[in-house]
Amino acid sequence: MNRRQWENLAARESERWRPPTFAPVTGIRGRFGAAVRRFFDPQAGSIWRDLTGPLSQARGTVVDVGCGAQPYRRLLPDTTEYIGLDTERAQEDFGYSMPDVLPIGEDGRWPLADAKADVVLATETLEHVVDPAAFLAEARRCLRPSGRIMLTVPFAARWHYIPHDYWRFTPASLRMLLEGAGFAEVIVHARGNETTVAAYKLLSLLWPAVLPQNESGSVRLSPLVLPAAPVVIALALAANRSLRAPAGDDCLGYTAFAVRR
Length: 261
Fold this sequence. Notes:
Layout: H1 27-40, H2 42-56, E1 61-65, E2 81-87, H3 90-94, E3 101-104, E4 117-123, H4 132-142, E5 143-154, H5 171-180, E6 183-191, H6 194-210, H7 225-242, E7 253-260
Parallel strand pairs: 1-2, 1-4, 2-3, 4-5
Antiparallel strand pairs: 5-7, 6-7
Helix pairs in contact: 1-2, 6-7
């Protein structure tokens, strides 16, 4: 191929196909729709599996940074105080606009007092942060002594929210960053294995054909929906079943826990 025909990806400003954004969950219908989304979206489903137990045991003040549509908020006990934080450009860069969310400005400083939080939660956020070390330093500042941070990051995931997707992390880099920011007792779990990744990648190939997207970002059902349905269901079943197997060196992403020293 002639090099002159290569696309300069450094100049890309958008995705060719973007999965529908998450929406706030209300009522039985909303919960059912969210469960269906998690079944067919192994990334979201694996995060839900990893965080269900830890978030159900959370106490005190929970700060959800990069909260988006707050899909994991309802895993928290009613007794917790929930604070959502997101970039002040959440609507422009990521298509989210939620009420009662505290904005993070360009300086990256969180609008919270020192030692305010018992738990800091950041799901699929760190890869969108220009300076991860500064982000984790803010997390430590806002946590009480022995407070806990819970992170999820993608690994075998496509480039998304272009151009605001900057990093992919390994367990070694997560440990290095967390310990460098003043955290201890770092634990990193893999979400899935090679089978999960293979099924996820095949689903990613099918979604643009089954759910084509127009310029406004909305999706529609294509005539391929019915013929592709058995394959899509089989791949989703394989992905979900594989999450019960031991983790692999290749995985969808990582879930990390650490304690403020």
